[in-house]
Structure prediction request, 285 residues.
Amino acid sequence: MTQASPTALIAEDEPLLAAALQAALARAWPELHIVATVGDGASAVRTALAERPDVLFFDIRMPGQGGLEAAADLADAWETGVEPGAPPFPALVFVTAYDQYAVQAFEAQAVDYLLKPVQPERLRQTVDRLQALLARRGVAAADAHAPATDALEATLAQLRHLLAATPPRTVAQSTPAPPLQCLQVGVGSSIRMVPLTEVLYLEAADKYLRVVTASQEYLLRTPLRELQSQLDAQQFWQIHRGTVVRAQAIDVVQRDEAGKLWLQLRGRKERLVVSRLYAHLFKAM
Prediction:
């Protein structure tokens, strides 16, 4: 339930900008209590899960894990309850230097954002929207029939579109390449051409990308998001922020006691977890 004094978390890797945003919020919204300021996405997720703030101000570009990715991980880990008063997923505001692709994506999905340096009038508009949203949530929280999952489901849909619409900085903006047919993977001093029809799944692993077939595994240095733009989305489904599977290779999908979805692929023994962000792919579950 939203407290009388609303709370917020700031995730910004530049201390001066974080301090400036906190000072600007103190002027525009004196009642808002900043529970913490952190400098990276992983810390933002941990702190948000511990503090359960009403609002998150996430820098879209942070070391290691950016704001979009952190928000997606937080949404996946956020515990929801059906009882009245269960805390809804926080309202999201992304803070970014001007980036036409990010701005277009935010506007298309009606997700609030602030451009650096933050301007007082623009912040005032954001505060007005957040106050109205929290007021609506306060009314809904008093309704025993209003599920706390509604805010989370709406955010999940927005995040899916945002992650797909905002390309990584390493990818030059150009005409999309035609879908790949093969992957070139290094095997010793040789290069093997692995047809995509043999690939069961792709998994991000540190600086590498695991390419997994029924009998072999290979490593690529290409980031998953960069390669994913060249895959046929009808054939390769993203089931986690770091995992893409070939849809025709899926054998079994199961839901555990905690409500988590897991799938198993033909020819492989391991189970792969399905993020809440992509659980909508398996509507029958």
Remarks:
- The two ends are 29 Å apart (CA to CA).
- The longest strand covers residues 199-205.
- The chain has a mean pLDDT of 87.
